[in-house]
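User: Reviewer 2 asked us to show a designed sequence for the structure in our supplementary figure. I'm pasting the structure tokens here. Could you produce the per-position amino acids so we can include them in the response letter?
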């Protein structure tokens, strides 16, 4: 049953919407309809937009909320997400809070999400090659391009980084592979860090176990893009979630909590339609396959193309592990007790291997989930003090 449910969900999210511009009606909250720059403006900041081109031709959207004097901070979102998550809480969101404190805030968008669905040669609607990426390519291409752009614009030697979920995975891959970037990052605050996936629990572990079957179904259907922004499912979801208390709770208990962890106090019914109007923001099938590989192998390694291709690419039959001993950047790891993805035991293994972990903190809330790092209404109580402390410690 779980195979059927997840497969149907992913397939529905690939169905393009052909509706006209008046499909959204008056019941939908305003913040569900605003983009990043509109949300930033609404909450007191004028955001700049920059296009950054990667070495392999992807055109990424980089947002900038100018600060008064302090050095730049770069924020990187998680799997299927976008920079929107860091302004959705308005005055209590991470990006706005940092900007209010005077920091110069930069927010990335990885290839394939709604803001970075462009390429110098490839058409994402026609060329499957566009979608042949996972956190590896995000790490070795997207992150260097954006980090170098920020450093060039700000004339800074280093940048502070806050990354969530897949954002942390991509940074670990980058810092282990292109070691020069260890000298360009002052400190990396890793929220819900993901590298090892050996301790997943149901229902996430159940989905991961059935991953190969789901993947084969998607391959047979020629599905490479998942959770595109403009889909029939998005419209239906946005409308349903906006149907007052009943709709908001339907989306919380039916969509968010089963996958990301149960925290009804941290994520109220009124916020559900706003969050799910912006998330998911698009990802590739290969991204899910790579994470499923980490689950099965219990290793943090490059993508497994199969023995013959591995031999050509890696000169070995299996994919090589990322050498985390080369990650010399200061790393602060922040975990949630109720996080179904970034499990504390897996993070403890990560801590043992990384040579420069300067902080290992479990959020002081028994209900803190994976998405609470981006969406919780009490981030100002549980998360922001930790972030400000680490930034000040290494200022």
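Assistant: Here is a per-position design you can include in the supplement:
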């Amino acid at each position: 049953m779980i195979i059927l449910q997840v497969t149907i969900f992913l397939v529905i999210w690939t169905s393009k919407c052909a509706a006209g511009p008046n499909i959204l009606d008056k019941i939908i909250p305003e913040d569900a309809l605003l983009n990043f720059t509109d949300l930033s403006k609404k909450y007191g900041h004028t955001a700049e937009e920059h296009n950054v081109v990667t070495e392999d031709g992807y055109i990424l959207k980089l947002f900038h909320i100018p600060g008064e004097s302090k050095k730049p901070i770069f924020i990187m979102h998680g799997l299927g997400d976008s920079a929107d998550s860091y302004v959705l809480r308005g005055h209590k969101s991470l990006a706005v809070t940092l900007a209010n404190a005077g920091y110069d805030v930069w927010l990335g968008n990885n290839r394939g999400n709604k803001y970075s669905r462009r390429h110098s040669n490839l058409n994402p609607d026609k060329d499957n090659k566009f979608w042949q990426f996972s956190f590896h390519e995000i790490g070795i291409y997207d992150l260097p391009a954006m980090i170098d752009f920020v450093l060039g614009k700000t004339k800074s030697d280093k940048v502070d980084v806050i990354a969530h979920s897949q954002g942390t995975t991509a940074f670990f891959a980058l810092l282990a592979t292109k070691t020069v970037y260890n000298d360009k990052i002052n400190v990396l605050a890793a929220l819900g860090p993901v590298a090892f996936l050996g301790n997943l629990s149901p229902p996430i572990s159940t989905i991961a176990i059935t991953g190969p079957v789901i993947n084969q179904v998607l391959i047979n259907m020629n599905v490479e893009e998942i959770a595109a922004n403009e889909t029939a499912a998005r419209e239906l979801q946005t409308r349903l979630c906006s149907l007052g208390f009943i709709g908001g709770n339907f989306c919380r208990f039916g969509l968010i909590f089963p996958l990301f962890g149960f925290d009804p106090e941290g994520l109220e019914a009124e916020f559900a339609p706003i969050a799910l109007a912006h998330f998911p923001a698009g990802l590739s099938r290969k991204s899910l396959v790579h994470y499923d590989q980490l689950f099965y192998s219990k290793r943090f390694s490059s993508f497994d193309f199969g023995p013959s291709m591995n031999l050509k690419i890696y000169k070995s039959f299996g994919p090589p592990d990322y050498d985390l001993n080369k990650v010399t950047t200061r790393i602060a790891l922040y975990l949630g007790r109720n996080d179904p993805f970034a499990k504390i035991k897996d993070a403890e293994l990560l801590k043992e291997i990384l040579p420069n972990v300067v902080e290992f903190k479990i959020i002081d809330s028994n209900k803190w989930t994976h998405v609470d790092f981006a969406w919780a209404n009490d981030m100002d109580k549980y998360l922001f003090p930790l972030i400000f402390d680490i930034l000040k410690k290494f200022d």
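For the response letter, you might also mention the following. The chain is about 40% helix and 15% strand. The CA atoms of residues 86 and 94 lie 5 Å apart.
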